[in-house]
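User: Can you recover a sequence for this backbone? Please restate the input before giving your answer.

Assistant: Of course. Working from this structure:
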């Protein structure tokens, strides 16, 4: 890419899991071998989200992440990158987010990237972010299945991007374990990921970003260091490499945790 993408601001939000029920009590038909292979959860420990008779109390995690970024200086596109099903089967998530936030720019929803939603999606964003206005991205992880043995939370990360130089410069992204270890691919195929001073990994699309967000808050990342955001799910891996050009200029926001009512 000629100039490259940069990240100007990062926000993070989490909420406790709500409305999960044991797999055996759900009407959802899922082959048990597929559940363990694709989601890494043994069937006997699996919970599944249910929307029947669900009562949602308060904003969802995407709304919190978007609010944490604040209103952009100019109207710009909003990209909602989701994993998992809609929180409310009667409401389109993107339309609700646009309506409740009063978003003035265009909007686009991206789905089915699952664990790659916070990393490999930058291959798309590289050409989709307008040079004049930049764009806002919300990556949301509300999984269909959960492991009863592991405490879980809905997660979302808000990112404000622009084309050209910025405080966090995107060096590359890609899919696969070899790329995360330093192979080529993604934005220009830089092949330099193995030299990163910081690595933030997790299973879902938001995990690495949330860990990076905490490191920024703690002052652990310095100018001139490279940061690897890495996601590794049961079937796929993705990576994103950042150059910390001016850490002090990164706008960082935490959402106010909202403990909604519901059941695990």
């Amino acid at each position: 890419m000629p100039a490259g993408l940069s990240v100007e601001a990062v926000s993070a939000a989490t909420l406790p899991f709500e409305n999960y029920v044991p797999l055996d009590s759900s009407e959802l038909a899922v082959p048990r071998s597929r559940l363990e292979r694709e989601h890494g959860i043994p069937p006997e420990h699996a919970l599944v989200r249910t929307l029947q008779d669900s009562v949602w109390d308060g904003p969802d995690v995407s709304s919190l992440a978007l609010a944490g970024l604040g209103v952009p200086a100019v109207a710009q596109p909003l990209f909602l990158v989701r994993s998992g099903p809609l929180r409310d089967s009667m409401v389109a998530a993107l339309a609700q987010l646009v309506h409740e936030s009063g978003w003035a720019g265009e909007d686009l929803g991206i789905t089915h990237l699952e664990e790659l939603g916070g990393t490999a999606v930058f291959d798309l964003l590289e050409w989709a972010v307008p040079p004049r206005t930049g764009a806002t991205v919300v990556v949301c992880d509300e999984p269909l299945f959960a492991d009863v043995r592991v405490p879980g939370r809905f997660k979302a990360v808000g990112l404000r991007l622009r084309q050209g130089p910025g405080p966090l410069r995107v060096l590359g992204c890609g899919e696969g374990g070899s790329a995360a270890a330093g192979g080529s691919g993604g934005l220009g195929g830089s092949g330099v990921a193995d030299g990163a001073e910081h690595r933030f990994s997790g299973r879902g699309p938001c995990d690495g970003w949330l860990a990076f967000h905490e490191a920024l808050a703690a002052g652990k990342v310095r100018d001139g260091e490279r940061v690897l955001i890495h996601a590794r799910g049961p079937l796929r891996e993705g990576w994103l490499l950042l150059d910390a050009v001016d850490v002090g200029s990164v706008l960082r926001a935490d959402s106010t945790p909202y403990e909604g009512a519901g059941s695990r």
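That completes the design. The CA atoms of residues 15 and 258 lie 6 Å apart.
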